[in-house]
Amino acid sequence: MAPDTSPSIFNILKSSAGDWTVVFSGSLNINTAAVTLNTLTPELKKTALTSLIFDFEKIVDIDDYGALVLYELKNEACHRGIDFKILNSSKKLRSLMAHIEDRLGSNNSKKSQLTSFPSGSNLVIHAGEAAIENFKSIKYFIAFIGSLVMSTLRIFQKPKSLRVDDIIHHMKTTGVDAVPVVALISFLLGLIMAFMSSLQLKQFGANIYVASLVALAMVSELGPIMTAIIVSGRSGSAFAAEISTMKISEEIDALLTMGFDPVLFLAIPRIIAAIIVIPLLTMFANLFAISGGLLIGITMLDLSVTSYISQTINSLNLFELFWGLSKSLVFAILISGVGCLRGFQAKGGASSVGHAATSAVVTSIFLIVLFDSLFAVIRSYWG
Predict the structure, then answer these.
(1) What does DSSP say about strands 113-114 and 19-28: parallel, antiparallel, or unpaired?
(2) b vs e for 273-310, b when ≥16 Cβ sit within 10 Å of the residue's Cβ?
(3) 86 DSSP β-pair partners
């Protein structure tokens, strides 16, 4: 290949086979985007090429304008049937190109091929990028907690700033709409627990204690955690998807421009609604699980309805009930808070909505199990 001198931002290496390699150096940004586009576009139109390769190994910086230049050149190349490839692209460049293609579309069904830095340095680069992203996430999490506290204080100062209609709406979507699936899963869970425990207990004539086992297991442990997992899959992901959609469509920026606090406007109503309805859903889950155990008791264990319910009531006490409800209250804060946080953290194109929803569910379930373990440790030292 023979070098061809172009503006200082890049050099063109041409081959006799019609392959061009454009080697960039310096910065492809708002200051150099225009001259780069005006120089390369006419060359592409008057030259018969088979492939066009951009090498960014020596690039120092690239911004939205530089990514738009690549987008235009890619569409021009694809329109003329020229193979288009980008070598040594950074994570920032790949993110910018994905965002621009999601927002503006592409004139060709083929996406540009973006290859990363050589594999020998991938491990170190990825480890550094992951550490930086995690540090930024911690900073964002602390800032989000601070915003929640400030918004809560603002509600006490100006109660009318709280959007009650939004709270009622989210109570319906989070609580009322979740009753059927919570009821069905809890009923089946209680039925399975009663059936499996009866296989052992009836050998010792202890059929009546099936009622105690189902009631205690559900009220203090399985009821809160199963309800929380179901709600995180339904509502936690919905919170993240709704807010992330508003984020990438710049509706949250519009709220800020109009003087609204996005946390107060979007997050607080969802969190309050979850705090109200998830403990209630947990109580419904307990009742339906006990009903599932009752079905096994009266059909397989020769227990009467009266004896089963009486044994259930005798096994439970207020401590067990409030212990389970306190766990569900903590789970409600975790689910709604994580869902809103992941929504506000979304950036990029449409794919970030699915990523935010998935991340919200995975993080919520992890925190639910973690805090349930902490509750178990606390209870072990309670006495």
Answers:
(1) unpaired
(2) bbbbbbbbbbbbbbbbbbebbbbbbeeebebeeebbbe
(3) 54, 114
d(CA 177, CA 281): 11
Whether residue 237 contacts residue 173, with contact meaning beta carbons closer than 8 Å, is answered with no
- Torsion angle defined by CA atoms of residues 274, 277, 279 and 282, in that order, rounded to the nearest 10 degrees: -110
Tokens 């586009």 label which residue?
37
Q: By C-alpha distance, which of 102, 103, 292 is closest to 182?
A: 292
Query: Considering only CA atoms, which of 305, 310, 324 is closest in space to residue 372?
Result: 324
Spatial distance between the Cα atoms of 315 and 362, rounded to a whole number of angstroms: 35
Length, in residues, of the chain: 383
Q: How far is 300 from 208, CA to CA, in rounded Å?
A: 12
Extract the tokens encoding 190. 């209680």
Q: Which of 92-101, 181-190, 313-322, 357-366 bottoms out in mean pLDDT, i.e. has the lowest?
A: 92-101
- Tell me the Cα Rg of the chain: 29
pTM above threshold 0.70: no
How do 51-62 and 19-28 pair as beta strands?
parallel
Backbone φ and ψ for 24, nearest 5 degrees, come out as -90, 150
The pLDDT tens digits of the residues spanning 202-246 come to 888 888 899 999 999 999 999 999 999 999 999 999 999 999 999
Report whether 32 contacts 38 (CB < 8 A).
Answer: no
Q: Which domains does the chain have, with CATH numbers?
A: 2-117 (3.30.750.24), 162-380 (no CATH)
Unique residue bearing structure tokens 């709604």: 336
CA 146-148-149 angle, to 5 degrees, is 65
Assign 353 to helix, strand or coil.
Answer: helix
